Amino acid sequence: MCVKLIIELSSHRTHLGAIEQELRKIARVDLHLEPPSTSVGSQPLVFSISDRDAGCGCSWVTDTAAWEKRHWQFKREAIESIADAVDGALKFAKGTASFRAVWLGVDRPSPTEDEVSAKQLISEIRANRIVPSRHYRVVRNA
Predict the structure, then answer these.
(1) How many CB atoms lie within 10 A of CB 46?
(2) Phi and psi (nearest 5°) for 39?
(3) The model's pTM
(4) Shortest CA distance to 131 belongs to which of 102, 106, 90?
(5) What b-and-e string marks burial along 72-108, b requiring 16 or more CB atoms within 10 Å of the CB?
(6) C-alpha span between 96 and 45 (Å, rounded)
(7) Which domain holds residue 27?
(8) CA gap 47, 67 in Å, rounded
(9) Which residue in 8, 27, 39, 109 has the most C-beta neighbors within 10 A?
(10) How far apart are CA 58 and CA 38, in angstroms?
(11) How many domains, the chain?
(12) What is the pLDDT of residue 141?
């Protein structure tokens, strides 16, 4: 089971170093630059987070996790790192941002978009209720 946790920010790519430095202070994560999509702004900064030195989010999910289930099943010890990293990254957004936890298999479902506040998203992560097929669009006053 391989999952990638992707964050998109309407922030300039030159901020990646500052974001990485900040996130490494507050969470046990590595950042990986991803190809930009068109869902956030015209020049989004897109990166994935992983457990330090792991490369993807596979080490964060439980043995019973599956993309077909209602929610991802992240290990308890991973939840704080994920929540802290996402919360820290969102502080660099210059407008909209998004988050998704994507299964890397071939037959994954098409994502649905939901608008949430940063507070709602972090609450969902801390409660271990991230939906595999959901693309969370973070807006200022959702």
Answers:
(1) 18
(2) -80, -20
(3) 0.84
(4) 102
(5) bbbbeebbebbbbbbbbbbebbeebbbbbbbbeeeee
(6) 11
(7) 3-138
(8) 21
(9) 8
(10) 26
(11) 1
(12) 60
